[in-house]
Amino acid sequence: MSLLPPHSLTGRLPAAVSRLRHLQLGIRSTSSASAVAEGHKEFPAKHDLPPPSSTISRLSHLQREDPKAFSHFLTDTFRRQHTYLRISVTERCNLRCTYCMPALGVPLSPPSHLLTTPEIVYLSSLFVSEGVNKIRLTGGEPTVRSDILPLMRSIGSLKPQGLKELCITSNGLALRTKLDAMLEAGLTGVNLSLDTLEPARFEMLTRRRGWEKIWRCFERLVEVNRLGAGIKVKLNTVVMRGINESEMLDFVELGRERDVEVRFIEYMPFQGNKWERGKVVSYREMLERVRTRYPGFYQEPGREGETSKTWQVPGFRGKVGFITSMTENFCAGCNRLRITSDGNLKVCLFGNAEVSLRDLLRKVSAGEPIEEEAMEAVKRVEMERAPGLRNAEEVLGRSERERELLEVVGAA
After folding, report:
1. Burial (Cβ within 10 Å: 0-12, 13-18, ≥19) of residue 48
2. CA 80 to chain centre
3. Best label site of 37, 101, 264, 322, fewest CB within 10 Å?
């Protein structure tokens, strides 16, 4: 399946005209990331923000700073450009990790409430046309979605429109058998979740068996990179006091001969995970634990938008990262947006504010899910209307539905 990107429906006009129209809409994006930036002076509370400047002065400022200004809709009031979109493609998961969800799982939404593949591809296209260059598919566990491969092929086809990275976050149980097809679809990065190198401890943490399958998946990822696949492989490990912090140095050793980044994640509170502050192993404590074994351990320069603090053991092929959500927030450089499996846009993982893109998208279908045939019919109608436009719609170069979606995104 291949869907045309939304901006191709009515044609792309010169960037300057499009930017002017964007700015005239007067939509400003305020990320709720500020709500969790405790003690961070660069991020005042939302009600303390200065009043928006005029759209004309904002246009002049953007043009002075960058004649090819980034999308207004994806630039917030802190001047952060949101180029990274994370899309949850399912609520389901084939593990029950103790730090992630209750033993019996979470209540699932009715299937009709979830985004269809054509809807996900449409939204992906819209965001890519505005400047998003990295998309990550998440869950739940994305590999349990029955049409994950066709979905990835459709999103991968957006690379000519500006998509640079197509990534997936997975627990690895079902990834290995799909990996080759995903590489053909355009996969560029895998974040593999693995919190222990001991099978018995894995079963305790996840309430399921399957450590061996995940390890084989990890070895396959390393192998395909040795063969030239060139994908970014990251191993995500949530560190919990009294459970797996004693394995940290064993994880670091995985990078001695392997081109992989092991990332240690501070234990974070989520609904139903019975979080305890005493279980949090802080960044500084983890750092000292690694330095004790490797005195030459040093930090690499940070990359724009990167949530992980990246360190290097001299002589190792791989790297070590620390995700410090609890002790040193990274809100200042956050460039992420999230779409939940039921179509809500979230601008901050820790924020409660959401806005439904699904409901706006389905206005043309009386609220019913839009499958491929219906999506093609909608696009045909929009394409038929395009040649006769002689008003502001033509100047903008977008359909009414696209404009409405972008305005909501900008106001989120």
Report:
1. exposed
2. 15
3. 101
